[in-house]
């Protein structure tokens, strides 16, 4: 999995209103995340972001710290607003049922137990690395500011119905989109998560 997304901008963001009319570069799949903020999404990839911000094509980016720091994006966008959107990329090891059933029971047990241990350990490593990079940005002159919880909630409330859009796209392929979304959200809530928006409702 990757780390969570934040904003790096050429201007300070103290409230959500500060994004109104501002150009934010990011990977095209992230454009819907800016919905309801008043920001203008600009398509771009990692190789072009520094120049796009430096030349004024964009006034900031929505990006993960581990992607931003090696590119030195905080040099041209020194205001780091901690948004904590969550992650977009996760990975996993899948085994089909026939193969799984052929594994000895002790192998199944090891894979099940180590799988959970590995997932938790990997998530912690990614979080620690991301936190360290944000600290480095601050040490190198960036202004670090956490977006207030009220603004995060307003941002999420103003988003288009991303859950319904995903369900529709998946269901159009003949797959059980609604069931998957419901299982995911119910599983997250059962484990103590408190989503800012229930995408299955």
From TrEMBL:
> Which keywords annotate this record?
Periplasm, Signal
Per the UniProt entry, what is one GO biological process? Answer: transmembrane transport
What Gene Ontology cellular-component terms does the record carry?
Answer: periplasmic space
Identify the main location: periplasm
UniProt keyword Iron, yes or no = no
Give the domain of life.
Bacteria
Q: Name one Pfam family in it.
A: DctP
The places in or outside the cell where this protein is found are: Periplasm
PANTHER family, per this entry?
BLL6794 PROTEIN (PTHR33376:SF15), PTHR33376
Kindly provide the name given to this protein in its UniProt entry: C4-dicarboxylate-binding periplasmic protein
Q: Which organism is it from?
A: Roseisalinus antarcticus
Give the classification, highest ranks.
Bacteria, Pseudomonadati, Pseudomonadota, Alphaproteobacteria, Rhodobacterales
């Amino acid at each position: 999995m990757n780390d969570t997304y934040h904003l790096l901008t050429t201007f300070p963001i103290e409230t959500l209103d500060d994004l109104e009319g501002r150009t934010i570069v990011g990977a095209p799949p992230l454009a819907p995340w800016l919905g309801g903020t008043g920001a203008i999404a600009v398509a771009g990839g990692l190789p072009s972001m520094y120049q796009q911000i430096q030349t004024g094509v964009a006034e900031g980016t929505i990006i993960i710290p581990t992607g931003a720091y090696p590119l030195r994006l905080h040099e041209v966008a020194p205001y780091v607003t901690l948004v904590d959107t969550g992650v977009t990329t996760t990975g996993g090891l899948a085994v089909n049922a026939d193969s799984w059933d052929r594994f000895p029971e002790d192998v199944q047990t090891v894979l099940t137990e180590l799988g959970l241990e590995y997932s938790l350990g990997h998530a912690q490593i990614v979080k620690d690395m991301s936190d360290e990079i944000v600290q480095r940005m601050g040490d190198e002159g960036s202004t670090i500011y956490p977006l207030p919880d009220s603004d995060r909630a307003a941002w999420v409330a103003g988003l288009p119905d991303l859950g319904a859009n995903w369900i529709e796209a998946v269901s159009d392929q003949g797959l059980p989109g609604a069931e998957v979304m419901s299982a995911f959200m119910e599983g997250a809530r059962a484990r103590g998560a408190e989503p800012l928006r229930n995408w299955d409702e």
